[in-house]
Amino acid sequence: MTHPVPRRERIRQTTIDEIKTVAHEQLAEHGAAALSLRAVARAMGMTPSAIYRYFDSRSALISALARDAYSSLADTLEAAFLAAPADDQMVRWLLVARSHRRWAKTHPTEYTLIFGPRPADLTGRPTAVQNEVERSVAVLFRCMQEVVEAGIVDLGVLDAELSPGLRARFQEWDCTDLGPAAEAACMLVWTQLHGLIALDLFDHLPPPLADSAELFDQQMIGALVRIGHRGPVDFAEVIRRADLTEQHTLAPT
Amino acid sequence: MTHPVPRRERIRQTTIDEIKTVAHEQLAEHGAAALSLRAVARAMGMTPSAIYRYFDSRSALISALARDAYSSLADTLEAAFLAAPADDQMVRWLLVARSHRRWAKTHPTEYTLIFGPRPADLTGRPTAVQNEVERSVAVLFRCMQEVVEAGIVDLGVLDAELSPGLRARFQEWDCTDLGPAAEAACMLVWTQLHGLIALDLFDHLPPPLADSAELFDQQMIGALVRIGHRGPVDFAEVIRRADLTEQHTLAPT
DNA sequence: CCACCGTCAAGAGCAGTGTTCTCGAAAGTT
DNA sequence: AACTTTCGAGAACACTGCTCTTGACGGTGG
């Protein structure tokens, strides 16, 4: 049988992958700023100049790693969404949020690469990255949509809070068929999620609260509930259900 | 009259200040990672080695800048708190939050220096930085205390959400005489505030929402109100009052 | 007044970096 | 077999943070 893809390009792709792998290790160890092309080349028995056959510059390499990071995060979120129970929207949201936090904790350097200052010279992004990030927010939107449709939260309260100008901005965004209030709700939980993860990851929380999964759960459930809950919510009960399904899906690996 | 402080140390302090000033400019222009000791020395007609008489290393310089940034932010917040009307706790909180956002927008590199990944090798911090950051959170606590005492929000709802373990952690924190629920409330608005500012500053918001003061106001008021509001709140009215006092205090400069 | 001594700045130098160039060897194509 | 494209090596340039040594200046004590 013949190879549909030329042998030349195949081995080229493998070296590209090897470069990215080695670079990924260096990045995970010493941080993004300390990523050295020469060190990467040295680690894989190459000359620094040879790397330039595969990446135009150091920034290009980091950009590629950043794109992979975006993709990895999106994969994780989608997987969490699909693995979560479809009939319990509250825990589904909590599990998605948890997987986001877990990913950030397991891939700290990638997280800073994505959400840190200036995403590593991602200037020339021909919607390559954009697609990946939209996959992530899509998961968030689906969670929100489910929660609203299930009648768990009422967007009426939040809708009343929106100023005309802000509502116009949300309508201009319009990346879904949900209304402006739903988009505002997404932004709300989104900022809360990112805020807590970032503060935690960068050691800006007081010691007793650092690395606290409980604080995260409480804030994430609360973020959803406070949008406009109908009736009281037993936080502990939600957490217990989430823990249960998580053990169920994580155990048989 | 004689100088109480020796002339020697005085001129030394001025050169230290000059180094910090020049470094600050370079930092503001090309970012923190691109700060070059040689460039700083070149800009002020010095030799690179001479700078080592004043700063042990490049990290030491950046740490010094970071400390100043912390101090600057704390000053800004305290000033905003004092300038705000004491009888309108809701707008007082909004004005403090706004000043935080404004500071972040006017000092982007300093903000990333503070809240970005690994605060620039701030390993040896003998509570020097710690004091400054506590000044900042103190302002937040005072806002929360005022709002609670004024009866604007009810901590009872939030208190019911806390799990025993989480309540224990908050009590262990105990950096104020307010209860665990109040501290949880502070963390809530704190994460929301930081999350939105960080996302905005690092260009992670969709274009229609980028750099939106309206979104910020809505989220900040909402964060406070949703903790446990008594009766409906007219967001537009709060914003109008805040705008008024802001024009009042900003105009006569 | 002079000698002293701590402080300062300069200069050279080391090890490292990203990047660009040229050149020879290998691989694939005709 | 000849030609072309691709690849890697090596040298070189302009940087970087940092260290060490060598003088020079200035305030202070004899």
TrEMBL record, chains A, B:
It comes from the Bacteria. The keyword Cell division does not apply. Residues 13-73 form the HTH tetR-type domain. One of its GO terms (molecular function) is DNA-binding transcription factor activity. Residues 36-55 bind DNA. The keyword Cell division does not apply. It holds the Pfam family TetR_N. PROSITE patterns: HTH_TETR_2. Keywords: DNA-binding, Transcription, Transcription regulation. This is TetR family transcriptional regulator.
